[in-house]
Design goal:
DNA-binding; about 5% strand; about 130 residues; 2 domains; mainly alpha; 2 strands; homodimer; Arc Repressor Mutant, subunit A; two-stranded antiparallel ribbon
DNA sequence: GTTTTGTTTTAGGTCGGCCTAAACACTCGT
DNA sequence: ACGAGTGTTTAGGCCGACCTAAAACAAAAC
């Protein structure tokens, strides 16, 4: 699961921001995919037990889906932070969403550690620290 | 091209190590794929102009293929180095091969920079520097 | 010069992920 | 209550990436 995890993560992000159920259109737009592709994927994610999908309503994460999504979210936060403060990329969020499903949690954890280290170092970039979770 | 790039990169690595043509079996084993999948992919890569494939012989990179592969290789080297010296992963090579096709060269470049920086810092981990290219 | 062994390829099939176009369903405004 | 408009879903199709099993091949062993 790598492409699918992007949808799951975005569902989670949307749910945080706008609550559930999550409208497929929002997901589609955020991922720059066709509405059709999104519907299809949400149905797939439902089959896999990550969310409940009500046609013309939207997606609601299941417990399993939320667990999975939170894990992805953790990766996403760490990566985005890393991309922003260390690599200074232009669109850290987008790149982080794309990559969150591709990196092992081991990588994420270690990156998080290096971020904490550089946070306590003298030449701090001034960005906000991680907080959360 | 993300899965395909793994094959291309491995072809390049094999070509460096054992010369050309590259036997599909070696590629298959290295990527933990079936021989059939590998044959198929090498044929695909041939269609895309990245290599010449001679049945029962093996693959020989074209100029375009080598160019592409070198770019992947650069990412691979940087990522592997990063995974080894900074994140201290168990199998930095494998993870680097998998990720090389997924990260933008922008990311790679910035990571390379941070590696250079940490190289010149007092608490050097002692790993070898990048050299190459 | 056959046979055997190991590798490679083809055949046939599955699933994931994406698209466009067309059908469908809600929601409003009138 | 109906038709317009917006958003969503279904239908049909395409391509990528993988697999197993069976056929084809090359090279070594006899």
């Amino acid at each position: 699961m790598t492409d699918a995890s992007q949808y799951l993560l975005v569902c989670y992000l949307e749910a945080r921001a706008d609550g559930e159920p999550v409208a497929p259109g929002d997901v589609a737009e955020r991922l720059d995919r066709s509405p059709a592709a999104t519907t299809e994927m949400l149905q797939r994610l439902e089959q896999r037990g990550y969310l409940a999908y009500e046609p013309y309503e939207g997606a609601t994460l299941t417990a399993a889906g939320r667990r999975e999504a939170e894990s992805l979210y953790d990766s996403y936060v760490v990566l985005a932070e890393f991309f922003r403060t260390v690599l200074e990329l232009e669109d850290p969020d987008r790149e982080a969403i794309e990559l969150a499903g591709h990196v092992s949690s081991l990588v994420t954890d270690r990156v998080a550690e290096t971020l904490l280290e550089s946070d306590t170092e003298p030449d701090d970039h001034g960005g906000p620290s991680l907080e959360r979770s």
